[in-house]
Design brief:
By secondary structure, this protein is α/β, with parallel strands linked by helices. About 30% of the residues lie in helices and about 25% in strands. It has 13 helices and 22 strands. A 6-stranded parallel sheet has the order 2-1-3-4-5-6, sandwiched between helices. The chain has a 5-stranded mixed barrel with strand order 18-19-20-22-21. Strand 16, helix 12 and strand 17 form a beta-alpha-beta unit. The longest helix is centred in the C-terminal third of the chain and has 26 residues. The structure holds iron/sulfur cluster. The site of iron/sulfur cluster has 10 residues, from helix 6.
Length: about 450
């Protein structure tokens, strides 16, 4: 029995896909092992968004070869689609598979027999037009369920459409089948995942279903306690969806909404499909209906043309918004994007300073959000990490809590009252109360 190990870089989508590919291997009789357990085959799922993707990829390959010098090393993922030849040059790589090939890797690399030449099977991205369903399982406390892939938007900084292709989705019917399979396991929380999930519903190039119908249907699946929407573009987050989440018992009060810039001038240059006023409106709609709702924001600093004044516009806009945390990205040039040719390059030092300012703002926002919720009661899904006798979990509205380690709490939903914020910035809870009997 051949042993196979996996390494995943990047986003939730990559995790869900690695997990599904690993189940394909298991179904074919391979044994899934940890990276260090002397595997015969390594599958490395890469990301193009990750800083220094090339260096990271090289490092992992080197590590793999150190562990198993005769192993067969396969590289898949966004970086593999974007730079297949570059990866093929990395010493120790046996095969590189693109977006259209990665789900067929077991049949394409028949037997994983080593050859003199590196195998490069990466078609043009236009070929990646079928939807391959995927979900992660037993890797984390939550499951990431892929409902959509690719993107038809063309934001000036983004390589994802080049790496993942056009927007396409699973059918609601198929997603319900996957959700019911997941419900039979002990998974308590499912995160709906995609590249641009608000654009859900395109099948074979035609819009056939809608995101709102997906969430309405999925809400009826018994046996899963929580559904979380991973990230949704502000222009696609409709009133109807917000209202539905506010009434749903299963969809949690948490939205992650990319803003990218709080300056309309920069938003236009980025090719984003909304202005800051729309974003502001989405936040107030959510907060009016769900004052305890967590709102996360993606923001990019140092985009070409972002002057000090325009950055301050972003800073002040975010400072005044009722949001809960930021994910700050420092702009970095990516080949084949429109932004690389834009004027107004921001020096790296300035980019880093701006990033630091927003990270501090994020901490401030998070603390305020946590403080507003102290004394309130929520349910926490405890995870399996232990640190100095403590364990962690998240409330439905994504507050990170700490409690005394108790193995019986792992992967359990508990009702807790948020007591105080500790020096690590997580929330201490009063003793967990009743166990939720979930299935
Ligand atoms: S919406 Fe823009 S940033 Fe998001 S994946 Fe599509 S092109 Fe990239």
């Amino acid at each position: 029995m051949k042993k196979v190990a996996f390494y995943t870089l990047g986003c939730k989508l990559n995790y869900s896909e690695t997990s599904t590919i690993s189940r394909m291997f298991e179904n074919k009789g391979y044994q899934k092992v940890e990276f260090e357990e002397n595997p015969d085959i390594f599958i490395i799922n890469t990301c193009s968004v990750t800083e220094n993707a090339d260096k990271k990829c090289k490092k992992i390959v080197k590590e793999a070869k150190k562990i198993s010098p005769n192993s067969y090393v396969t590289i898949i993922g966004c970086y593999a689609q974007l730079k297949p030849q570059e990866i093929a040059e990395i010493k120790g790589v046996d095969a590189v598979l693109g977006a259209a090939e990665k789900f067929r890797l077991i049949e394409l690399l028949d037997g994983f027999a080593k050859a003199q030449e590196t195998k490069v099977l990466a078609s043009e991205i236009q070929e990646a037009n079928t939807f391959n369903n995927a979900y992660s399982m037993h890797d984390r406390t939550r499951t990431f369920l892929k409902v959509q892939d690719g993107c038809n938007y063309g934001c000036a900084f983004c390589t994802i459409p080049l790496a993942r292709g056009k927007s396409r989705s699973d059918t609601i019917e198929n997603i319900l089948i996957s959700a019911r399979e997941i419900a039979k396991t002990d998974v308590k929380e499912v995160v709906l995942t995609g590249v641009n999930i608000g654009d859900f519903g395109i099948q074979e190039g035609k819009r056939k279903e809608k995101f709102i119908d997906l969430i309405k249907e999925i809400d009826t699946v018994e046996g899963i306690d929580r559904f979380r929407i991973s990230s949704i573009e502000p222009n696609l987050l409709t009133n109807e969806a917000i209202e539905f989440v506010s009434k749903s018992k299963r969809f949690v009060p948490h939205f992650h909404i990319p803003l990218q810039s709080g300056s309309n001038e920069v938003l236009r240059k980025m090719g984003r499909r909304y202005l800051r006023e729309l974003y502001e409106d989405r936040v107030s709609k959510i907060k009016n209906l769900m004052p305890h709702c967590c709102i996360g924001v993606d923001v990019i600093v140092g985009f070409p043309g972002e002057t000090d004044e325009l950055f301050l516009e972003t800073y002040n806009f975010l400072n005044g918004l009722d949001i809960s945390y930021l994910h700050v990205f420092t702009y970095s040039e990516r080949a084949n994007t429109r932004a690389v040719d834009m004027a107004g390059i921001v020096p790296i030092k300035v980019r880093n300073e701006r990033s630091k300012m927003l990270r501090i703002l994020s901490e401030k926002k998070k603390r305020k959000f946590y403080e507003e919720n102290l004394g309130k009661t929520f349910t926490v899904l405890f995870e399996d990490d232990v640190e100095n006798g403590k364990m962690h979990g998240f409330t439905e509205n994504y507050i990170r809590v700490t409690a005394k380690y108790d193995p019986i709490l792992i992967n359990e939903l508990k009702t807790v009252t948020l007591a105080s914020i500790n020096e690590n910035g997580t929330v201490e809870v009063e003793e967990p109360q009743t166990v939720y009997e979930t299935h």
